Amino acid sequence: MSSSKQVDSYRFLDRTTKKLVQTWVGLERLRAIPWTPLSRPLEESTVALISSAGLALKTDRPFDQEGERRNPWWGDPSYRILPRDARSEEVKLYHLHIHPRLAEQDLNTILPLERLLELEASGEIGRSAPHHYSFMGYILQPEALLEESTPAMIRHMQRDGVNAVVLVPG
Description:
The chain has helices spanning 15-27, 65-70, 101-105, 113-121, 143-159; strands at residues 46-51, 55-57, 79-83, 91-93, 127-128, 131-135, 164-168. The protein is of the alpha/beta class. The chain has one domain. The longest helix has 17 residues, at 143-159.
């Protein structure tokens, strides 16, 4: 991809809404990052990936992009589960603010499942979790994501024995 291209995160917003959102984002205060130390060494840990790229299996329900086109203040707060062995040709990117070619050419650029399996094979991590997760980033009203989807993802990861999570920004 050419370095002269720039992603326009506001391309579906009208001029007034764009200015309002940019101002709103600029008002966000810096906060401490809630790091939690590992409960066991990484080489004994089960690691899951969570991507904010709006990725789903092609056989799964797509993320709702039309809802965001109709109302740029809204974003699909649901999440999707991807198996540890998912490949680029099995996954589709449903995000209005990310060029889909990234995931189509190499899923590892946006959800590094193969790289995680390599870390497992080399013994740097205990194992890749059986399931990984994706949600739609760029959600301006995150209540449902935080109150429903996030706890549900956590329950899935607890069932899978996940000890560490890598957040992969979309």
